[in-house]
Design a protein that fits this description.
Radius of gyration: 13 Å
Mean pLDDT: 84
Distance between the termini: 27 Å
Order of helices and strands: EEEEH
Number of domains: 1
Amino acid sequence: MADGMFLMVNNSNKANNNLVLTVDVNGIAKKPNAWGHDLFSFQIKGGKVLPMGHPMTTTTWGTLPCDISNSDRHNGIGCAYQVFVQKDYFKNLPK
């Protein structure tokens, strides 16, 4: 994008997984390129844009972790929702 942000679009063919948009807010060339830090995903579901981790969002692999003690490769994908519900989210980032 013009301001350096990078936008990814994933359109799964799974019935329970709708269009997912992932934004790298500081651009793909700048680190850390990690979910919950500078990568945040949103799912378009039922005509609404929902931050991943919202109770109505889904994935094909199951959980939407956002846990500072979890080192799973998908950890952080559920953090977009936490940004909205936790006042001090950026003071306690996931691994």
